Amino acid sequence: MQAAFFHGVRDIRVRDISDAEPKAGEVLVAVTAVGICGSDLHTYLLGNIGGVSSREPIVLGHEAGGVILALGPEAPPHLRVGQRVAIDPATPCLQCEFCQHGQHHLCLNLKFMGYFPQHGALQERMVHPARSVVPVPDSISDVGAAMLEPLGVALHAARLGAVQHGEDVIVIGCGTIGLLCVRLARLAGARRVFAVDRYAWRLDMAANFGADYCLNIEQVDPVEEVMRVTGKRGVDVAFEAAWVTDTANQCALAARNGGRVIIVGIPAEDEFTLKASVVRRKELTIIYSRRMNHTYEASIALAERGLIDLDALGKFQMPLARAAEAFEAAADYHQGVVRAMILPQWKG
């Protein structure tokens, strides 16, 4: 079978590898769809993510869905061969302090696929812990099954932001996570939703997802526009969903006194600065969101009921053999590409 390996900056190579057999507590999955996440792009463009670099070629990809091909011994009884599943990239230890308190995303011994040294989902078939695959209904497409992971990330951020009915919200950065934050803010009953980006086609999608004000940073100052619309009050909740470096301060400036700022993006430099006087004088609550926690059930419900159109985010699709092209398209912000999807079973 084939897999796509990251070898170095802007260097993705597809090659043959051997099939693996599921051991006790594992399943063998035919991978049907994989999304290229912003964190994959950090590795692709910078050679590392959060200061962690791969010391040898690694298979990336952690937003994935597939079909169970085989069950290892001791697999849970609710799983069966032929079942369609979302592949949760995280496998917590379930033993540490944070796992014991239900904070599996903060596990001290977390194993995360596509993050060195664990290989990811950009391969035709993969073995994965059975407790980390989630059955999905047939009403959710293969692309939708993979997109449940970023929806979970956005849902976790939305829960941290705790948007209330009638509150104003700004989302800076309208990639996949930002667009999902826009949609979740609208579903939560936000009064006005501001969406900020530099690409017109992303802002068009933000409008489709429920944004009231779509602000192109090449044309307007988003903070000035927020203050104009809100009568200099600012927004109740600001979501940062870009690359953080400049946008975190924009969120702080756009937030009202006593407001909440939720940072979802990952800075390229692994650090960023906030203007202390703004944060202090406004007494802002700053929360950095870490992946997701117990979100698959809610994410499936949102998608199954048609409240969030996951397929609209993943229309750019490539076969595994053209994985390098898919990464280039995502990294260079090709027109219309929100989430570049790789379909490992597609032989086109």
Automatic annotation (TrEMBL):
InterPro entries: ADH-like_C, ADH-like_N, ADH_Zn_CS, ER, GroES-like_sf, NAD(P)-bd_dom_sf. It holds the Pfam family ADH_N. The keyword Cell inner membrane does not apply. GO terms for molecular function: oxidoreductase activity; zinc ion binding. Its cofactor is Zn(2+). Keywords: Metal-binding, Oxidoreductase, Zinc. PROSITE patterns: ADH_ZINC. Transmembrane segments: none annotated. Residues 8-338 form the Enoyl reductase (ER) domain. Belongs to the zinc-containing alcohol dehydrogenase family. This is Alcohol dehydrogenase.
